[in-house]
Amino acid sequence: MSTLEIKDLHASVNGTDILKGLSLSVPKGEVHAIMGPNGSGKSTLAKVMAGHQDYEVGSGDVLLDGYSLLEMDVDERARAGLFLAFQYPAEIPGVSNANFLRAARQARLPDGEEIDAVAFYQEMYEKMAKLGMDKKFTGRSVNEGFSGGEKKRNEVLQMMMLEPKYAVLDETDSGLDIDALKIVAEGVNAMRSEERGFLVITHYQRLLEYIVPDHVHVLNEGRIIRSGPKELALELEEKGYDWLKEGELVKS
Amino acid sequence: MSTDSNSGNMIEIDREKANFHYDVEYKHDAGMGLSEDTIDYISNVKGEDKWITDFRKKALSVFHEKKMPTHWASEDLNSINFDEIRYYLSAGEAPKRSWDDVPNEMKETFERLGIPEKERKFLAGVEAQFDSEAAYSNIKDAVAEQGVIFVNSSEGLAEHADIFRKWFGKVIPTGDNKFSALNSAVFSGGSFIYVPPGVKVKHPLQAYFRINAEQFGQFERTLIIVDEGAELTYMEGCTAPKFETTTLHSAVVELVAMKDAKIQYITVQNWSANVFNLVTKRGLAHENAEVRWIDCNIGSRLTMKYPGVVMKGEGARGEVISIALANDGQHQDTGAKMIHAADNTTSNVVSKSISVGEGRSTYRGQVHIPKHLKGCKNNTECDALLINSKSRTDTYPAITVRGNKHSTQHEASVSQVSEEQIFYMKQRGLSEAEAMSLSVNGFVNDLVREFPMEYSVELKRLIELEMEGSVG
User: Fold this and answer.
1) Going by C-beta distance under 8 Å and a sequence separation of 6 or more, which residues neighbour residue B34?
2) Domains in chain A, CATH or no CATH each
3) If you measure CA to CA, which chain A residue comes closest to B419?
4) How many C-beta atoms lie closer than 10 Å to residue A75's C-beta?
5) Of A155, A225, B215, B293, which has the fewest CB atoms closer than 10 Å, so is most exposed?
6) Which residues of A touch B10 (CB under 8 A)?
7) Which residues of B fall within a CB distance of 8 Å from A109?
8) Which of B423, B428, B439 is closest, CB to CB, to A104?
9) pLDDT digits (tens, 9 = 90+) for B200-259
10) Does the beta carbon of B429 lie under 8 angstroms from any beta carbon of chain A?
């Protein structure tokens, strides 16, 4: 039951089918990577799991430790333990990072319980230090005027503070230089544990050199067409995606 | 989710915080409708001098002569039925200096609104008005000993006629507009404050205006004179219970800042949705004086309020900082008026409005700099935030600058809380209402900081309550 399980998922946006029977299972303690060409449905999968209103689920299910996420509202899914690190995080003018994180943590407490502010700040500063973030950052508005790298670091900081059961990282490597990529990867690696599963969505193999996956899945036209060990990512890097697509054609 | 429903319950109790009223035996009731008899009744109860009665009657005829300003303002003004309103209600007792002496219903009212507690914590003095008259009025001894006068308008007229009469109706003449005329005819309550030269009142003086009765109009009249080099912060809060019928609140507030004086006037009003709030506020700033209006408008059916500053002396400064929140069925028609009447005068207007659901907010600004002056500056910023697709905002800035020795700046923006922002916040575990209120608080955050600490906390809370209700 300690699994994030996607079962035969079909989803569309504006009447166009994007996911066409996607199945995948990420047990706790493992890191799974999803790779695939542009337009294969990678980001759609992330949005559908999180519950974005623009996507319609036709059939199938997504189970978090046995409970269907699809029946929950976006925020309930989050509080149930699903975290999405956004490819393009939204900017929230006037809301400081500290206040935002505090509100998010508060939302997870039972009614009547208040966050211990001192312990909260201490924890936040420690985690920021791991990500090489300046303390001043807490007073800045969420993602407003952030560079690409700062936004991605902020996503990882939020993940570290919210300690989800399962984290979906959507193209977290895009827009990062190699130093920032290493820091972000270290942050993710520090969170790897038996109690947590990761689904890392990426177009390039580069990220997987730093966040080494247990399994690699190749997504094409809304379906997983190949799964394999981490070496599969290297193979994709060398050969591109076309040989797999052709293989799929032959198979069908 | 349990967190949601629980906090929802908490909110419900809080939301109802100001929505209660007591059955009070009013000793004096001018009855429904408005005529010269109404004025005679009020003047008689108050034992006023003849000049005041005459002043009132003249104002009544001005009120009748003036048309509703519906050629530029909301047609909704025509829904006010002046015959279905009571213009004076009081228990017929002088305001008390101790809460123990305040009649029970009134004392309980203000206790539920947290006034005595605030007074103990951080105020230099409090006047608490219940319908037409103050039930409680007190100034801390240390402040009174400095020569500061803080009484209601009737007492000001009776006991301090020399200062009162000199400025009464001079900043806002009776005929300024239809509602200033109405107030001049039937005014009752409000504060009269005089701060002697050089006295800097450390803690704020506060007035709380409470409407308790149904089909009633509250017409407080406030006159504040801060003498040379003196400083004062004044705060007012207003609430009323929600009735099916119309409640009218039409105040006139005149401020006079003498040379080098500073006045900061802070309003946090949270009217129920049946209140027409039509208020005229203006300050006169002499040489190097400063008048700041910090204004937060929440609630009411229609609010029309454009605090102004007439900068009469060289180097005078005027400022209006305002936050307005218009929810379903509400129209916040607010703004600022800056009249430059001397060289090197500076004015600043920062206005932020939020429209929720089918709420509507309007900004009207008037900046006037005549040709013969030099070195005048104005900065105007107005930002509107729309929460839903049906929300509405309009901006009518009128900046008249003659001559070329001035600098003015005007910026306006309209933004919306995007679905992507809400989705992002919800993905972090915040409910939709929490996400909304967080982004709205973010929008007004820089202005909320201008309010004293105790008020900014309350303000954030009020905004959260409004947002909770609008999404839930």
Assistant:
1) B60, B82, B83, B85, B87, B185, B186
2) 3-92+149-251 (3.40.50.300)
3) A53
4) 26
5) B215
6) 111
7) 3
8) B428
9) 999 999 999 999 999 999 999 999 999 999 999 999 998 888 888 999 999 999 999 999
10) yes
